[in-house]
Amino acid sequence: MASKQHHLHPINGFWYYRRRVPKAVLSLLAPGTKPIVKLSTGIHVIDDPDGIRATKTAVKFDEAQERDWALRVEGRTDEASHLTVASIARAKVHGYRYRPADEVAGLPLNEVLGRIEALMRNGTINQKIDRTALLGGVSKSSVLLNKAAASYNEFLRADHNGKSPNQLLKAEKKKEAAMRRFIAVVGDKDLLAVSREDALAFRKWWSDRIENEDITSELAIKDIQDVRMIIATIIDRDGLHAFDQKAFDGIKNFKRQNNQREAWPLETVRDVILATDPADLEAICHDIMLVVIGTGARPSEVVALQPHHIHLKHNIPHIEIAAEGREVKTANAKRKIPLTGIALEAMRRNSQGFERYNDRAAVACAKINAWLRQFQPEPEEGDVYKTVYCFRHTFANRLYEVHATDKMRISLMGHEGTGPKYGEVPLSAKAEIMAQIAF
User: Fold this and answer.
1) CA-to-CA distance for 203 and 285, rounded, in angstroms?
2) Are the C-beta atoms of residues 328 and 321 closer than 8 Å to each other?
3) Which of 163, 279, 285, 367 is most deeply buried (CB count within 10 A of its CB)?
4) What Cα–Cα distance (Å) separates residue 402 from each residue in 150, 267, 432?
C-alpha cells in the first residue's frame, strides 16, 4: 500500500494526492476555500495496487504544490494557480520544467521541438493538460470546479426569471450537486484542466453505482449532462475557445430505464381510496389530492393556484393554470380545467387556494404519498410505490375510455402537443367530457 508520507490516498477507486493547506497559506486564500488540496493522479487503484506509479505522480504534485504555496507567501499570487500546479507536475512527469507559453516561445528551437516530440512519443499531444504542461498555457486559472456551478448559476439566473424562488433554488442546487459529485471523482481543478480521462472516470463511477446500488440511470444521465453544460457555458461566456473543452464529447450515454409508475386502478380510486376516512391525513393535503384526482392537474399546479385562478362563480366552475410566480412545465401547461364532483367540492373548501403549500409541493406530496402507502403492497424488486402523481395517469386512462380526442387530452392535461397550434378547445366542450368521468 502506498505510503501516506507522499499524501497519497485511495478515493473512489483512484489514487489521489491529498494534503492539508498550511495555515499561513490558507489565510491568503479566498474566504471559504477548502483547507484540503485534493488532486487525482488519474491512476486506478486496481491498476496500481501498491501505488508505485501513483507515488511518482504524487511526488510531482507535492513539489508543484510547494512551489505554488511559496509564490503565494511571497505575494506573487498572479503566478500561482491550480492549473499551474497541475501543469508543473505533468511537465516533470515528462522530464521537463513547466514554463508559461511566452517563455516556451523564447526557448531554443531544439528544446521546443524536443517538447513536441515528447508529446508525440507519449501519445498525449491531443491531451490539453499535457500540451499546457510542455508548451505553456493560460497565465492564470479560469474557474475552479468548486466555483463552476455557482458561476454558471449566477450567469444564467436572468434566463430563469419565470421560476418561483423554490424552483430556482432547486434548479441551482441540482447543478451544484452534480458538480460536487464530479469533483468527488476527479478532484478539484481548473475547469480547463478537465480531461477526457476525467469524463470517463465520472461515467464509470456512475456505472458502478447503477449496477451495485438502488439507483436509476436518470440521475446519472442528468449529472453528466449538467457537468458538460456547466463547462461548455463558462468556456463560451469567457471566450476560451482557444482552449475548448471537449472532454465529454462522444461520451456514451446510459440506457434510459423505464421507471414510470403505473396508474392507480379506477376501482381502487373509486371504491377504496375515496371511501377511506382521511382522518390521519391533513385536511388540506386530502383536498389537494382530490383536486388532482378530479382534474388530472399536476400536484405542483394545484398547490400554486392563486385566488384569482379559482373561478367558482363562473357559469362553468374551473381553475386556471397560469405561469405566475413560477415556471410551467410546457407551453400547453397554461390551461383552464372545469371543476366537477370531488374536485369542485374540494375547491369550494379552499376558495383562496392552498397558500400553505404554494411553493412547497414536495412537502404536500410527501404527506399524501405516505398516506397512500396503506393501499398498496410492498413493491417487489424493480417496482416502486404509486404516488399522488399517478392519479394523472388514471385521469388520462379515463379520458381514453370516453374517447376524448388527442387535442382534448392535451388541453386538459397540459402535455406537449405535436399538431397545429391554432384553435383552443372551448371550456364548455371540456366540461362535457369532465362530466362523463367525474367522481
Assistant:
1) 40
2) yes
3) 285
4) 49, 16, 11
Q: What is the DSSP secondary structure assignment for residue 42, as one 8-state letter?
A: E
DSSP letter at 87 equals H
Upper half-sphere CA count for residue 437 (Cβ side, 13 Å): 25
| Nearest in space to 270 (alpha carbons), one of 371, 375, 380, 167 | 375
439 grid coordinates: 367522481
**Rounded (10°) angle between helices 82-93 and 52-73:** 140
What cell was used for 52? 508505485
What whole-number distance in Å separates Cα of residue 176 and Cα of residue 182?
A: 10
> How many other β-carbons are positioned within 10 Å of the β-carbon of residue 88?
21
- Express each pLDDT in 239-284 by its tens digit: 554 444 567 777 766 665 555 568 899 999 999 999 999 999 999 9
Distance CA 138, CA 105 (A): 14
> Hey, what's the torsion of the CAs at 377, 379, 385, 390, to 10 degrees?
-80
Q: What is the pLDDT of residues 355-391, one digit of tens each?
A: 999 878 878 888 998 999 999 888 776 567 888 988 9
Angle of CA points 100, 38, 82, to nearest 5°:
20
Distance in angstroms (rounded) separating the CA atoms of residues 139 and 100: 7
Closest-CA residue to 411 (of 356, 302, 331): 331
Sheet holding 335-338, edge to edge: 310-311, 318-321, 335-338
* Phi, psi for residue 354 in degrees, rounded to 5: -120, 65
Phi then psi dihedrals of residue 355, to 5 deg: -55, -35
CA–CA gap between residue 102 and residue 88 (Å, rounded):
15
Is the entire prediction scored with pTM above 0.85? Answer: no
Of 7, 30, 9, residue with least CA distance to 19: 7
Distance CA 321, CA 315 (A): 18
Rounded CA Rg of the chain = 29
Tell me phi and psi for residue 61, to 5 degrees: -60, -40
